[in-house]
Specification:
By secondary structure, the chain is mostly beta strands. It has 2 domains: 106 residues, Immunoglobulin-like (Sandwich); 127 residues, Immunoglobulin-like. Helix content is 13%, strand content 40%. The protein is built from 6 helices and 19 strands. The protein is elongated and about 75 Å long. Belongs to the bacteroidetes fimbrillin superfamily. FimB/Mfa2 family. One of its GO terms (cellular component) is cell outer membrane. Keywords: Cell outer membrane, Lipoprotein, Membrane, Palmitate, Signal. Pfam families: Mfa2.
Length: 312
């Protein structure tokens, strides 16, 4: 009888001996995550810039009918190790929405098991708090439609894991305002940097990256920079995407008393200077406001977007 038991044990060992090698594709494996998303961002330039541009990703999974399934996030440390994320999903059809760089200036609507994708949104935190915005986050967006077939429940590694590349797109416009020649001093005689105000900026997006919501007011003080051999007051605002035909107004204000010196209709400025933000991945609107003795000139700065290091 003991010999018979020994024979049975040896038989079982021989049957499963092919599964000792981890490289075997025929062995049962315990797969915790069956879906791998690799993140990618390619701008108007040919090189891949994901980790340079995006420091955090929030992933939202919905069923094909829009019902919320789950959320998963990856911070800078995780993205530096692997520019992607792994998920464990049942077979089915999914819509996966990703927001990159949603930080302290971005509010993401709370989601629960009864939530629907059509009701989800991101907006500026200033809208929620009823305050002015000093700036916005440099948001990026990605959307994927994925079908996971029942065959993913098979027992081999090659059949259980599906891998996709997800391309991110820029979800903000960079508005650069430069001011030259404005003399505004405090009682001690020190030159004060002007304040720039932007009105008419849409507050956020739904989860299909369509802008919506009430307008947010941006307001912040410029900083003096050394550009092309001159001291210039400068500020950059990051806003949600807007169209060339937009209602945005930019005001230049004195820091000493808050009075408005110049108002700029952004739509008119863009049209007069052949600037478009539509269909441009890295959309930038540079504006130079130059105060002279008897006039104010509003134009595109000659130096473009490249500041000169004062030490050079």
């Amino acid at each position: 009888m003991r010999v018979f038991h020994l024979f049975i044990v040896l038989f079982i060992v021989l049957i499963f001996s092919g599964c000792v090698d981890d490289s075997s594709g025929e062995c049962p494996v315990d797969i915790e995550n069956n879906f791998i998303l690799k993140f990618r961002y390619v701008s108007d330039e040919p090189e891949e810039l994901f980790i340079e541009k995006i420091k955090r990703v929030d992933v939202f999974v919905f069923k094909d009918d829009g019902q919320y399934v789950m959320t998963q996030s990856a911070d800078l440390a995780a993205l530096t190790s692997f520019a992607g994320i792994t998920l464990d999903l049942d077979p089915g059809s999914y819509r996966i929405v990703c927001w990159g760089n949603a930080s302290e200036k971005t509010f993401i609507s709370p989601l629960s098991t009864n939530s629907m994708m059509k009701d989800a949104f991101v907006s500026h935190t200033a809208l929620r708090s009823g305050t002015t915005a000093t700036n916005g986050d440099t948001l990026y967006y990605a959307l994927d439609h994925t079908i996971l077939s029942p065959s993913l429940k098979a027992i081999t590694v090659s059949e259980t894991v599906i891998e996709r590349i997800l391309d991110f797109h820029n979800a903000f416009v960079k508005v650069q305002v430069y001011v030259k020649g404005l003399v505004d001093k405090n009682p001690q005689g020190n030159l004060l940097p002007p304040i720039v105000e932007m009105n008419g900026v849409t507050s956020g997006y739904n989860f299909e990256m369509q802008t919506f919501g009430n307008a947010v007011r941006y307001l912040n003080t410029t900083a003096f920079e050394y550009i092309s051999g001159e001291t210039v007051a400068a500020i950059t605002f990051y806003t949600p995407r807007f169209k060339d035909d937009n209602p945005i107004e930019i005001k230049i204000k004195k820091s000493s008393d808050g009075s408005t010196l110049t108002a700029i209709n952004l739509k008119d400025f863009m049209r007069e200077n052949n600037i478009t933000v539509e269909g441009i991945e890295e959309a930038v609107v540079p504006i130079l406001v130059e105060y002279k003795e008897a006039s104010v000139e509003i134009s595109i700065p000659e130096w473009g977007q490249i500041p000169v290091d004062p030490e050079l």
